[in-house]
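*Target chain*
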Amino acid sequence: MLAKIYPILLLVVSNVFMMFAWYGHLKFTSKPIYIVVIASWLIAFVEYCFAVPANRLGHSYYNAAELKTIQEVITLCVFMVFSVTYLGESITINHIIGFVFICIGAFFVFKGPF
């Protein structure tokens, strides 16, 4: 059972780095774009060091569509926390409704009746 959870934990760590690579620079708008791009690429390298093994290990237990779905749901969860705590933005009811619909889609990837 732990072997099935390990790729998910790696994806969570990967997503934390991904959020900083993609959105962390929004707090540093005075920095030149080339500095931001280089910093983001360095952070993204660390993200890939977790994402690639997560997908490699995870593919032993999940198919590619399931791995991608897990990744997207984790991304949304990490994004909500990141957006509120780091960027100081609010999550609105529209965001929550949209995220719920994405999670419903994830349900069908794993447990759909079709």
In short: The radius of gyration is 16 Å. The first helix runs from residue 2 to 23.
